[in-house]
Specification:
By secondary structure, the protein is of the alpha/beta class. The protein has 2 domains: 23-39 and 272-363, Aspartate Aminotransferase, domain 1 (Alpha-Beta Complex); 64-269, 3-Layer(aba) Sandwich (Aspartate Aminotransferase, domain 2), CATH 3.40.640.10. Helices cover 42% and strands 16% of the residues. It contains 14 helices and 13 strands. The strands form 3 sheets. The protein has a 7-stranded mixed β-sheet. The protein is globular and about 55 Å long.
C-alpha cells in the first residue's frame, strides 16, 4: 500500500510542467496596514445606500440560478458606456475572466497574444495557461509605445490578439492616440483582434469608445473594480455584435452571480455617487503629484489612473520602510527591467494620501 505523499507525487505528474513552474498571482497580506497597493476605490457606500442595497440583496432568490436580470445589467451597462449602435456586450467575472475567455476563444494552432511590457500581468498569464505564445514588446524608457517595435512584432508574429491598456498598468499613462491607431490598423490588416483595456476609465481624460465604430476588429474591455466595486468582480467586453457573439460561446453559464449582478445594477442606479468619488480621487492624485515634486530623489510619471508610478533611489528599502510605518504599496521594481527601483502608489482618501506621503518621505 502506497502512502498519501506517494499518491500526491504521482498525481502531480498529471499537472502540466509549465503550470508547475509558474508563480501564482500574489496578493499581499494587508492586515493591520493602510492598503494602497491594489488601485481600489477607498470610498465605501454612504450608510443610507448600504441599507438600501442590503435590503435588495436580502430579497434575492439565492436558491435559483441567475436569470434574466443579467440582461437588465447588460442593457444598463450599454447605456452607461454609450455603446454604439450594432455593438454587443458580454459580462465577465471581472476582467480577468474576460481575458481568459478571449485566450480560449482564439486558441488556434500557433496563435500568439501580444502586448506592450511592462503591462497587466494577466495578459501573459492567461495566454500561457491556455497554451498560447505570449509576445511582450518593451515600452520606451519613458513608458511610451515603441511604434516601430510594435509594428514589427505584429508583422512578424501575426498575433491573434493585441492588448492595449488605456491607461496602462502599472505605468498609469495614456499612450499617443496616433501611435495606437497605427497599431490598430496594422493588426486589422493581418486579420487579428485588438483589445483596448479601459480598466481605469473613471480616472482618464479620454476613452477609446468614441472611435470603436471606425474598426470592425476592436473590442473594448472595462471593469467595475475601479468604478468602486472591486469586491463584486464584474467586467464587461463590448465590440461588434458578430465578434461578441462568438467569444460569448466560451463563457461559462451563470458566470455572474445574482449578488454580483444586483450590486452592479444598484451601483449604476447611483452612478452619480461613484462619479463624485472618482472626482475626489482625481483631485487627490493632483495633490500627491504636487507633494512628490518636493521630495528629493523621487521621479513620478503622468497618471490618468488612480495610481502613480514613482522611481526612488532604493525601491526595496523604501517599500519596507513604508510597510514598517503601516503603509502598504506595491513594489513593482522586479516586474520588468524598465521598472527598476519603481513603486506604484494607489490614490486613497485625503487622510490616507497624507499618511502615505509622510511614510514615503520618512522611508527614502
Amino acid at each position: 500500500m502506497t502512502s498519501a505523499s506517494d499518491d500526491t507525487t504521482r498525481a502531480l505528474s498529471r499537472i502540466r510542467a509549465d503550470v508547475q513552474s509558474m508563480h501564482a498571482y500574489a496578493v499581499q497580506d494587508a492586515r493591520g496596514l493602510l492598503k494602497l497597493d491594489a488601485m481600489e476605490n477607498p470610498f465605501g457606500l454612504p450608510p443610507a445606500l448600504q441599507a438600501a442595497l442590503g435590503q435588495r440583496l436580502g430579497a434575492l432568490a439565492l436558491n435559483r440560478y441567475p436569470g434574466p436580470r443579467s440582461g437588465d445589467l447588460q442593457r444598463a451597462l450599454a447605456a452607461y458606456a454609450g455603446l454604439p449602435e450594432g455593438f454587443g456586450l458580454m459580462l465577465g467575472n471581472g476582467s480577468d475572466e474576460l481575458i481568459s475567455l478571449l485566450a480560449m476563444a482564439c486558441d488556434l494552432p500557433g496563435a500568439a497574444i501580444l502586448a506592450p511590457e511592462p503591462g497587466f500581468v494577466m495578459y501573459a498569464m492567461s495566454a500561457r495557461l491556455q497554451g498560447l505564445r505570449f509576445v511582450g514588446v518593451p515600452l520606451t524608457a519613458d513608458f511610451e509605445l515603441d511604434e516601430a517595435a510594435m509594428l514589427a512584432a505584429i508583422a512578424r508574429e501575426k498575433p491573434a490578439i493585441v492588448y492595449l491598456a488605456y491607461p496602462n498598468n502599472p505605468t498609469a499613462n495614456l499612450w499617443d492616440d496616433a501611435v495606437i491607431e497605427k497599431i490598430v490598423q496594422a493588426q486589422g490588416a493581418q486579420g487579428g483582434l485588438v483589445v483596448i483595456d479601459e480598466a481605469y476609465q473613471p480616472f482618464a481624460a479620454r476613452s477609446y469608445i468614441d472611435r470603436m465604430e471606425r474598426h470592425g476588429h476592436v473590442l473594448l474591455m472595462r471593469t467595475l473594480s475601479k468604478f468602486g466595486l472591486a469586491g463584486v468582480r464584474l467586467g464587461y467586453l463590448v465590440g461588434p455584435q458578430a465578434l461578441i457573439a462568438e467569444v460569448d460561446k466560451v463563457r461559462p453559464p451563470y458566470n455572474i452571480s445574482v449578488l454580483n449582478c444586483e450590486c452592479a445594477l444598484f451601483a449604476l442606479e447611483h452612478a452619480e455617487v461613484f462619479a463624485e468619488q472618482a472626482a475626489r480621487i482625481r483631485a487627490g492624485r493632483t495633490r500627491i503629484f504636487e507633494a512628490l515634486a518636493g521630495l528629493p530623489g523621487v521621479r513620478s510619471w503622468p497618471s490618468e489612473a488612480n495610481m502613480i508610478l514613482v522611481r526612488v533611489p532604493d525601491a526595496a528599502r523604501t517599500f519596507e520602510g513604508m510597510k514598517s510605518r503601516g503603509v502598504l504599496i506595491k513594489n513593482v521594481s522586479r516586474m520588468h527591467p524598465l521598472l527598476a527601483n519603481c513603486l506604484r502608489l494607489t490614490v486613497g482618501t485625503a487622510e490616507e494620501n497624507a499618511q502615505m506621503l509622510a511614510a514615503l518621505e520618512a522611508s527614502l
